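Marked as duplicate of an earlier ticket. Keeping the data here for the record.
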Amino acid sequence: MRLLAEAPFRLWMAVSGTLGGTTQRQLRQRLHDQVDDGHREFFLDLQELRCAEGLSDGELRAVFPKDPAARFHLIGGPDRIREVVTGDPRFTLYAAPESAWCQWVNGT
């Protein structure tokens, strides 16, 4: 996970590699720590992320803090992640970074 941009209460991060048991816990901890530090809006570029076999829907959902004030902008990413967050109003899904960047620049 790489931090690409930071603004008050917002982070833009790129996440790549394979999301498995160990990496799921690391990503979950990092996002939860960022929420604890006061960040509320996350732009997560997941275009280079893959999901390992065997992760449950619950494990995928657990990556994202349940804080009702947190908002997640997911750019690309594995279908499995996109499917488990579909319908949750805290998530906005983007196919490519350009549209997400417009939201970032406008301060959403």
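See parent ticket for discussion. The first strand starts at residue 2 and ends at 7.
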